[in-house]
Amino acid sequence: MISPFSLLADRWHPTAAHVRRAALAALVMSVVIVATGGAVRLTASGLGCTTWPRCTAESLTPTPAMGIHGVIEFTNRMLTYVLCAAVGWAILAARAHKPWRRSLTRLGWAQFWLVMSNAVIGGITVLTGLNPYVVAVHMVSAMALVWVAVLTWERSKEGDAAPRPLVAAPIVRLSYVLVSVVGLLVVAGTLVTGAGHHPGAPGKDGKPVWRIPLDYDRLAQAHADLVFLSVGLTLAAVLVFAAVKAPTAARARVRELLVLLLAQGVLGFVQYFTDAPEAMVLLHMTGAALIFGAAVRIPLALRSRDEEAAPVVPAPAELANH
């Protein structure tokens, strides 16, 4: 069946490097949209546009009477189209590449639908007056987009052979546990934000924006506990990967994650004891996206999709038996 995509593929043959650049652009924009979403919240512009999908009931764009908050909120909405363009570029490049890699095309479409769903969730946050639970779901959905974007970028650098592990199964499971704990850390962070400072807007009709009715200090402590657990697991992974001589890329990535976690931890403690200044919160949100992306990359370095993979590295227990 002839389609616009097949017609494009007949006339345009991007190189593998072009496909990788397109996938990287989509990944960068997925992190940028997290940062700009944080800027909307931290400038109290979450209700800068009073409705959705229009900015006001009468206007698609902000009016002069809405001031800077309307401009900030509307600009963030417009950046969604830039993100869509980057994802569209990745989809088209993957489709037109010879040979056609269906897996990359599907990952690109997964990013597109995540962007669309996140736009709808963002609209619901406005329509519900920045309900903190909906805002948390909005952030988690953005992290899901980062996850798929990272996977797409990494897959664009690999072949299409079946994945082959480069380390023993317990090492792979350790990497999955690490990703899961970092994911829980991000979710806990959204709850801390929902119960604490920076609700995103001054509220409607003079009423403050509703916050999650849980003790802020206890949530912050639970979040800190997950930070300690994440750092401990990452440090363990650094030592284990070195002991079993895991692939160089995996060892480098787990060290990168450790550095990011330590920096984020210091930032988080300073943020807590300085009453959460806006600039630090913005750095913290951007850091969360970078940390989650860094964690997701670790299991991907423990297997190969090339035609010939390196031999599997035995686990420490197996080494002791030889």
Strand order of the largest sheet: 1-2
Mean pLDDT: 89
**Tell me, what's the shape?**
flat
Question: How many β strands by DSSP?
Answer: 2
Topology order in helix (H) and strand (E) letters: HHHHHEHHHHEH
**Percentage of residues in DSSP E strands:** under 5%
Rg calc: 22 Å
Secondary structure tally, helices:
10
In whole angstroms, the N-to-C terminal distance is 57 Å
In terms of per-residue confidence, which ranges show pLDDT below 50 for 5 or more consecutive residues? 318-322
The SS-based structural class is: mainly alpha
The main sheet comes to: 2 strands, antiparallel
Helix content: 55-70%
Transmembrane segments: 21-44, 78-96, 108-127, 133-153, 174-195, 226-244, 256-273, 279-300
InterPro entries: COX15/CtaA_fam, COX15/CtaA_HemeA_synthase
Keywords: Cell membrane, Disulfide bond, Heme biosynthesis, Iron, Membrane, Metal-binding, Oxidoreductase, Transmembrane, Transmembrane helix
Main location: membrane
Structural account:
It is a multi-pass membrane protein. The chain crosses the membrane at residues 21-44, 78-96, 108-127, 133-153, 174-195, 226-244, 256-273, 279-300. This is Heme A synthase. The protein has helices at residues 4-11, 16-42, 67-96, 102-127, 132-155, 169-195, 216-243, 248-273, 278-300, 316-320, and strands spanning 164-165, 303-304. The protein has 322 residues and is mainly α. Strands 1-2 form a two-stranded antiparallel ribbon. α2 packs antiparallel against α5 (132-155) and α2 (16-42) packs antiparallel against α9.
